[in-house]
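User: quick one - fold this with S-adenosylmethionine bound?
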Amino acid sequence: MLPIPILQTSYGKLYQGDCLEMLKGLPDGTADLAFADPPFNLNKSYSSKMDDNLSDAAYIEWCRAWVAELVRVVKPGGSLFLYNLPKWNLPLGAFLMERLTFRHWITVDMKYCLPIPKRLYPSNYSLLYFIKGSTPAIFHPDRLPIECCRHCGGEQRDYGGYKDKMNPKGVNLTDVWTDIPPVRHLKYKRRSANELSLKLMDRIVSLATDPGSTVIDPFGGSGTTYVAAELLERKWIGMELDCSAVISRMETIETDREYLEKISGLKNRLFTQRALSLRSAHGFATGKYRVEQGKPQAKEIELFA
Ligand SMILES: C[S@@+](CC[C@H](N)C(=O)[O-])C[C@H]1O[C@@H](n2cnc3c(N)ncnc32)[C@H](O)[C@@H]1O
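Assistant: Sure. Structure tokens for the protein plus S-adenosylmethionine:
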């Protein structure tokens, strides 16, 4: 049995408490998409005062318990995404291999923390993508604009004789995502270090769900998944030990709506508006490309990353 939600919105329900207990209260096959960004066991302090310094074995055991619940609550054809450090996603991926169908190990390339002495600079955040069954019920990945120089708009790669064959909606999304900005902008940042980029959650929710689908995220944090789901008109079920950050974020969701509108100009087109202006100023022709004459993105964000 689930408790009474601490917050209800047009599309979502937020429950305060231990996600493992609450997941057990959900029926099988509830979600089209389950996404989890748990604490990484890095001895960080959370407002919920949870213990983020377990032994490796205890952390993996705990993760397996809620991952098994997520597997259960995903619908046939539904998706499960797990965001963590490679160190943890390696064993958790092996656990998932026995239960779901592997689709991708997505690398989110993000230089986020400080270099660690005697180690390589960590910039590989692992995003595991599994589905239940052999084919995804929903799969529509965004396409991305051609990578262009942020100063002159020239292509970073030579597309040679293929320019006229390129999809006007942009290039295929790969399994290495280099365009996800760490949340640093004061206007958008609400919690130190833990908040994921709305751009990342917009991409995942758009890829694996349709309007009206159901998204579950057992580790709410500041609520990025719920905001993405709400703005994209997906139903959502959220859980968090301390829901205060999600509640206050939902009160200012219009700031997130504005951000989402701005970044919509950074996907599903061959050139961003900014790249087109730079190209025209620096004499780069776009004539050979099939550029769609879409609505100009007047508010397109000054964000190349
Ligand atoms: C890395 S943060 C999630 C950040 C979130 N993805 C965002 O973008 O804001 C992990 C969150 O999980 C919460 N948490 C940890 N253990 C939990 C549990 N057993 N049940 C529910 N929430 C938990 C912590 O309080 C923390 O806010």
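One thing worth noting: The chain has one domain: 7-143+174-271.
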